[in-house]
Fold Glucose-induced degradation protein 8.
Amino acid sequence: MFLSRIVLRDLDSIDSPASMASSKKVVTRDEWELKLRDVKIRKEDMNRLVMNFLVTEGFVDAADKFRIESGTQPEIDLATITDRMEVKRAVQSGNVQEAIEKINDLNPTQTFLEEIEKTVALLVFEDVKNCPYGELLDVSQRLKTASEVNAAILTSQSHEKDPKLPSLLKMLKWTQNQLDEKAAYPRINDFTTAALEDPSI
């Protein structure tokens, strides 16, 4: 991503609109890797990015091991991750009472009160199809609700509700799409391996 920005800047300063219309600049793998070596990313920043992902997504064991191995301290107490994941599991499995109790333990001021009242209303009806909130029992709705509750708990703990890593990958994809209009260059097409593919000339 950082490299793509540098190349975009370089291309903007070198190529005129007339030359851009006729052909794209070709950046070889050697040139690309030379530029890549000039980009300095601190290991601490990368470690914080990984820890942010593990904490936000709720991988408490992995976050604890990563803390020990890298020396990177999480922004929140790792015990709260376990509590948050228990709430999420309770919502996903439809265990309303357990979810309410755990949310109360985490955040007794109940910013979630309206949603919980709707959910508790399901308990009043023997035939939930007749309940005005019957759609809450749908599995897809449970997953959506669990995700929203997870985000709300993170926000209440003054933590970002979304991990930074997926946003950075989206930014990388956008940057590459912008760069595609101006140059042929070693591109990352498979984000799982981050392998560079030589430009097609």
About this structure: Residues 78-161 form one domain.
